[in-house]
């Protein structure tokens, strides 16, 4: 209370970042969870989820800060601040494009980005402080914005790998089908008749030769039938 620096801190000011000292990781009193990677399409709003658990009761002193670093690198910049009420950034590339959809009473500190563009690609960090709980993990969310209808490099690679494999399988099936038909036709050509079928045919030939001995099909065959 006697510190003049603390006396000048207003409610709407963000507390300075408090790094986690060595050896404190096992006794964190505040845990934050976010999605490691979020995909979005140009012009379509995207939700950045952030949930937290605090060992202390939620009060008006609770602070939420969302910071952002571009994909190209650089320093982190604050793009959204919450303390009792939302405080969107008054300037910068995310001006008027970030909306608060969280509920701190339920441990939710999520935001929505309106009309994302390709240049929004980068890393977002959700930081929550609920004094006296100020030590917490620092999860990161990588935002990937693409144009709908355009293939990503991963999708293109999958197609390039799958298409040749499908063609090879199709050619193998066609080849197997042709081989199967050839074996089937060959089997028909080499078909051997049973003794009964041979006897029936010989009977008909002999009968023909008896009635028409000059028929070329007889070949000198004669029939000797005894009754």
UniProtKB/TrEMBL annotation:
NAD listed as a keyword: no
Pfam families documented for this protein: V-set
Keyword hit for Ion transport: no
Lineage: Eukaryota, Metazoa, Chordata, Craniata, Vertebrata
GO cellular component, one term: plasma membrane
TM segment ranges: 154-174
Record localization: Membrane
InterPro entries: Ig-like_dom, Ig-like_dom_sf, Ig-like_fold, Ig_sub, Ig_V-set, Myelin_P0-rel
Protein name: Myelin protein zero like 3
UniProt record similarity statement: Belongs to the myelin P0 protein family.
Main location as per UniProt: membrane
Top-level lineage group: Eukaryota
Domain Ig-like: 16-146
This protein's UniProt keywords: Disulfide bond, Glycoprotein, Immunoglobulin domain, Membrane, Signal, Transmembrane, Transmembrane helix
Membrane topology category: Single-pass type I membrane protein
